[in-house]
Structure formats: C-alpha cells, structure tokens
C-alpha cells in the first residue's frame, strides 16, 4: 500500500530535519507518495502569505501531513502558521509524548508521559483588541464542546496505550467560569471512564509536581495555553525540545511536527539534531497503521542515542544531521 502524505519542509532547519524523517520512513519500507508544498516566512514574497491555500488543499486531500518547524515573528508580523493550520483544519488535539532516552542528559529516569493539549480555543483563539492606547485585552474562550472533546480524546488515548491515569490541569480556583467549565467537563467525562484513574491538578501546582516527580503522571489533558507552557517545561525534564515529537489531530486531518523551533542560526550547517523529526515520523506511521515500521524506527533511535557513537553536537558528538540519520537507518 502506498500512502499519500503532504510534506511541508518549513524553514530554518526544517528542510534538513524533515529530509531526515523522510529518509528514515523510506528506509523502513513504508511506501509514500510525497506531496511537497511550501509554507513559512520564506514564501511570503512568492505567494503573498506564509500559508498558501495550496497547503491547506493538499492536507485536506491527503488527510495526513508531516511538517517541519516554521519561524514565527515575535510581537509583530503574521500570526503563527501552526495556530492557523490548527484552526483552519480543526486540529483540536495536540499530542506531545515526553520520554527519557538513555544517552540523553537528564536528571530523571523512566519518564514516559503524554501531554494532550486542546488546540482551538482558550487565549490562542486570538480574540484581542486595544481598549485604549495604553490597555490591551485578550479574551479567553472555553467551550463545553471543545473541553469535552479533548478530555474524551485523552481517555481514549490512555486506553489505546494501556495507560492507567488521566490528569486534568486547570486554574478553576481563580477562573471559576472558564476553567471551571473545563474542569466540570473533565469530571463528567471521567464518570463514563471509570476503568481509568482520574485526578485534577491546579496548573501552578502541576508545574511543581512535574519537576518533583514526573513519573507520577501518565496522560495530562489541559486547555491550550497551559499545554503550550507545560509541554515545553516537560521537554526540559528529558533533555529538551529536540527529543519531543508532536501531532495535531482532528476529525478529518492530522499534521505531525516536531516540538522544537526552526533554529535559523544553524540552518543549512548540518548541525541540527533530527531526533524529534524522526520520532514524529514514527508517531505519524502509527497513526496511519504502519505500527511495525514505527516500532523499528523508535528502537533504532533509542540504540543510536544510547551508543553515543554517532550523535550531533548538542549531545557532545561530532556527527552531522546526515550522519546521525544514516546511523539510525543502519540500526533499522
């Protein structure tokens, strides 16, 4: 079977790490017809927008996309392409598995949790305006529909992966209406899933608990902003964003992308660590049913990281992006 998949190389180190992921997928034996499309700051002059309509059309047609990181301006310029993709395609669930790997410097061992983040609303709905020249206002949007949907997704994921607990993260002690609604929805969903343990934790306490003992947690589910912050914090527990795959999943489409940024300072130098992009490729293969190939890739990554004979500079090695990729393919 040949899979039709959209490939968005991105910018910065995006083309390098997505090429690594593409090479590993092809070496796994999975057959893919790649539909390569462009998005990002580099295409604004060509298309007049960082997100051409052709990108959305390709994803809608193929249902699955592998995407590299894209640079987002800070404080001005266009809004995040990632946010735009999630909203336009209704990719309501963001997933970031957080796992320790032998050979990757970390203060912890045996961390293996998943952060499930609601992807379409909260403060990231982008509803903001200037009240006056001195006051800006952003509106936090939390709905019953989106909250229930994301918590149900988290429980379904826990069951599929044989996990024991779902933790809802919130700030309902202060935002009693918005986060209060999210918490109520979570508790209602939990009543229908009594085979999975459930708890809720206030977001600031969650930050402390994750640092104290991340092994206490399994699947965490939360509104958009908390998920953005805590997933990056959790990455710090296991070596950094360079080891976190990511997925944005909706009813009709899914976009898979590594959690890290575009690192334009090292773009084109062959220094980028492609681990997160390759793990993202494995996550995507599981989604499309290529479980055996995905497991093969994950085991190869674990072996290369543990051996440390052919790793990139961020891990103390001298290997280039290509050399690391070739080492993973050899292990497969």
UniProtKB/TrEMBL annotation:
Superkingdom field: Bacteria
UniProt-listed Pfam families: Iso_dh
Bilayer-spanning residue ranges: none
Residue ranges of every copy of the Isopropylmalate dehydrogenase-like domain listed in the record: 4-328
UniProt-listed InterPro entries: IsoCit/isopropylmalate_DH_CS, IsoPropMal-DH-like_dom
Keywords for this protein: Oxidoreductase
Family: Belongs to the isocitrate and isopropylmalate dehydrogenases family.
PANTHER family, A to Z: DECARBOXYLATING DEHYDROGENASES-ISOCITRATE, ISOPROPYLMALATE, TARTRATE, ISOCITRATE DEHYDROGENASE [NAD] SUBUNIT ALPHA, MITOCHONDRIAL
Protein name: Isocitrate/isopropylmalate dehydrogenase family protein
